Structures
1.
Amino acid sequence: MLERPPYLRDGAAIYERSFAIIRAEANLSRFSPEEAEIAVRMIHACGQVSVADSIHFAPGLVKAAREATERFAHLVDHEYWPGMAVQSDEALREAIESNSWGHHANGTARMGRRGEMLAVVDGDLKVIGTSNVRISDASVFPHTPGSFIASAVVQIGEAAAIKAIAEARGQSPLAVLDTIMQQA
């Protein structure tokens, strides 16, 4: 009988194990060691080893992008990301690695205040500029909440439901939560 490997609970160990599996299964031979590390993270994010065949790196990308930005400066207000502090291919690689998702896509409709650059929903999970549209999934996270985001997604859903019920009843969210807890 095969012995089951121990269940990993440490986030760093889980990532390292996932990356080791990807390195063993993906064809990374055409990449430099630095490119291979980025490719491993890209494969990890989408969950498909075959994506390695579609990854292409462009040397001098930062320089080419900045030159294009300068040419079309009249159309661009400013560079939001990665920002002017990133001036080399190595710095761009580091920016991508530190801002890439792990396994679960999130943060595409970030929560924030009206007027914030990337804010899509407010603290009540309402789409900014609307009155009755809420988003209650992982897209609202302003930052990745960790390796396994399922419980955080459930909490966002519960918060959205409680806020919507409270608004419909003209009550505070705490009053609605209190009613729910009394019924449980």
2.
Amino acid sequence: MCLIAIALERHPRFPLVIAANRDEFLDRPAAALDWWQTAPAEAPVLGGRDLQAGGTWMGLNTRGRIAMLTNVRDLPRHVPTAPSRGAVVPGWLATDKAASAYWAAVATRSHNPFNLLAGDMASGQWWWAGDRAGWPQALGPGLYGLSNAALDTPWPKVQRLKAALDAALAEYVDKAPAVKLAPARAQTTSRRQARRRRRGNSVMSDSRVRAPAQARGRAVPGSSVDRARSSGQRGRERSVRPGPAGAIRRCECQSWEPPCRGRL
């Protein structure tokens, strides 16, 4: 994987957002995203898989551990016979060690140059380390970029991806259910009655009041409007009006929450 941007606690709804791309030779076989295990006793891993060396460049497991790896561009230090860097990610996912203890073990394996960005979602701890780093660097809330050099090295592709991810987070706005208000009426009654009338004219139907007959203004047999008419409760008819599919209707218990516990 040659490019990663990660946003930690940058959005109120999405505490973790990752945008990443793996760059690899086309003739190197790989399996697509799926669940797999390196050993029967280990937690299942979700990720792609390098079918040549058996490791992965990005994965997470059911215990909440996650890791991403990029190669570091440093040809003079590249050793063709070095162990596969793809084993570093599954190693973090399989262990219970803290970041410092795991990194101390990895440093003795003589892998070719790489970066590792890893986290434990159960504890909320994130860290980055490079093969030349003496100690893992803890990461707090923020936006980070990683490619084939140290964390947040301002390469053009890193800067572009970070800017695109930041813009996407800024543009995303949760769409709350729309509240449609009925046309205003002349306020010939007291202020309290006017407020009640406006509340009664607000949000209106749910999936149980979506029949075309009611949308045309006629009462559906068995509906609250029909029951109100048959019982002579003409005042209640105004509290249930046709509205957009999936909206919420209000009953005489004054509750907006579905399902209503009162009488409709």
